[in-house]
């Protein structure tokens, strides 16, 4: 895997918060509306490419999106991904693999 200088999206957004910046830290400007649009489109295109290839990521979150200084997004951490190529039916397994931060109450039951 290549090194991505910007780090992950979650860390970047946290560093942009005014409350997270100190007098000694370098000031990181919050992303503009154009930058946010580039990030959103990059993630959407990446996910579209995965789904076209028959892959379900199953753990997409800000910490699993690497971001370059020019706001190019790279989806990473395919540990929970699943190749659904050749499957006729999506079946629910008894194993529950997902990030609970983004899970609704019905799935947690």
Describe this entry's structure for a reader.
With 109 residues, the chain is an alpha+beta fold. It is 29% helix and 9% strand. It has helices at 9-16, 33-52, 105-108; strands at residues 55-56, 65-67, 73-75, 82-83. The chain has a two-stranded antiparallel ribbon. Strands 2-3 form a two-stranded antiparallel sheet. A hairpin with a 5-residue loop joins strand 2 (65-67) and strand 3. The N and C termini lie far apart (36 Å). The mean pLDDT is 79.
Mind sketching the topology for me?
Blueprint: H1 9-16, H2 33-52, E1 55-56, E2 65-67, E3 73-75, E4 82-83, H3 105-108
Antiparallel strand pairs: 1-4, 2-3
Highlighted features:
single chain; 109 residues; alpha+beta; Transferase(Phosphotransferase), domain 1; two-stranded antiparallel ribbon; 3 helices
Number of contiguous helices? 3
Major sheet details: 2 strands, antiparallel
Global shape? globular
Percent of residues in helices comes to 25-40%
The radius of gyration computed from the alpha-carbon positions, rounded to a whole number of angstroms, is: 17 Å
- The residue-averaged pLDDT reads 79
The CATH superfamily name of the domain at 1-13 and 28-77 is Transferase(Phosphotransferase) domain 1
The number of strands is 4
CATH level 1 name of the domain at 1-13 and 28-77:
Mainly Alpha
In the predicted model, the low-confidence regions spanning at least 5 consecutive residues are: none
Q: What is the CATH topology of the domain at 1-13 and 28-77?
A: Transferase(Phosphotransferase), domain 1
Element order, helices and strands? HHEEEEH
Widest β-sheet, arrangement of strands:
1-4
How far apart the termini lie comes to: 36 Å
Strand content: 5-15%
CATH architecture of the domain at 1-13 and 28-77: Orthogonal Bundle
Q: How does the helix and strand content classify structurally?
A: alpha+beta
GO molecular function, one term: transmembrane receptor protein tyrosine kinase activity
InterPro entries: Kinase-like_dom_sf, Prot_kinase_dom, RTK, Ser-Thr/Tyr_kinase_cat_dom, Tyr_kinase_AS, Tyr_kinase_cat_dom
Domain Protein kinase: 1-109
Organism: Mytilus galloprovincialis
């Amino acid at each position: 895997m290549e090194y991505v200088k910007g780090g992950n999206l979650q860390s970047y957004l946290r560093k942009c918060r005014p409350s997270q910046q100190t007098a000694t830290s370098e000031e990181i400007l919050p992303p503009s509306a154009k930058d946010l649009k580039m990030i959103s489109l990059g993630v959407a295109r990446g996910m579209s490419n995965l789904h076209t290839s028959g892959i379900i990521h199953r753990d997409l979150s800000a910490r699993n999106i690497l971001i370059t200084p020019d706001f190019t997004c790279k989806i990473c951490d395919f540990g929970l991904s699943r190749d659904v190529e050749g499957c006729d039916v999506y079946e629910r397994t008894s194993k529950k693999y997902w990030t609970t931060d983004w899970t609704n109450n019905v799935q947690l039951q």
